[in-house]
Amino acid sequence: MFRLAPLRARLSTRVLSAASTRTLMTVRRPFLAQRSAAMPLLQSTPVWNGMKTNIYGAQQLRTMFIQTETTPNQDSLKFIPGTAVMPDSSTAEFLDARNAMSSPLAKKLFQIDGVRGVFFGPDFVTITKDQDAIWQLMKPDIYSAIMDFFASGQPIINEDSDGAGLHNDTMINEDDSEVVQMIKELLDTRIRPSIQDDGGDIEYRGFVDGVVKLKLKGACRTCDSSTVTLKNGIENMLMHYIPEVTAVEQAFDAEDEVSQLEFEKLERRLYNQ
Fold it and tell me: 86: domain range?
């Protein structure tokens, strides 16, 4: 692991202040204001999590309070179990049941009708549903799946999965240039916390010819405001504090590009009808 103290000292000379946080937050406020009044921003749901015996031999209910938070993406909800989800601040994303085989919890969540994507953050789980699915019908099964998993004591990612789905992209390596180190430090300390507050995340994919490549994940992946967040929030901040950065672009995997092409074809067919 590369030492971060000298890096933070260099970043501090570029006047990293509370203004940087405000830059990103100004992008988020309009989306937060659009959240439905019918769905509270924060809900706490006590979920039965087995029995325990007190010193007098009487059995007592043991509960887990699972909080839910809305996100700017109406098809994504953030579930907070009140305990650590991923180790070492890493994240993991699963986009289908086949990909979820490496995680007992993700596998169980994909067995619920309407679940389209699962994202694990340090202390939360973001569920993305199909557009026609109804949260009120899905929530009881989601609560049950999360409760059963944490009661089982199983690892969040199977030990024999070779780290499938795990990401720790902002770890600074010894061969990283000074600019790349500063980009990773800014992403990790200033930008990522705000993105994760909305149930999403960003993954660093590279820095080439002044362009930073980032992949949006979790609730941000399918959010209508993702482009605004990427350009008006992240790009402005990186360009302001790191002059070597000239642009920020979204990175797509092969399956993402295929999905986008199919979506554009469908749009054209509907337009021509």
Answer: 35-161
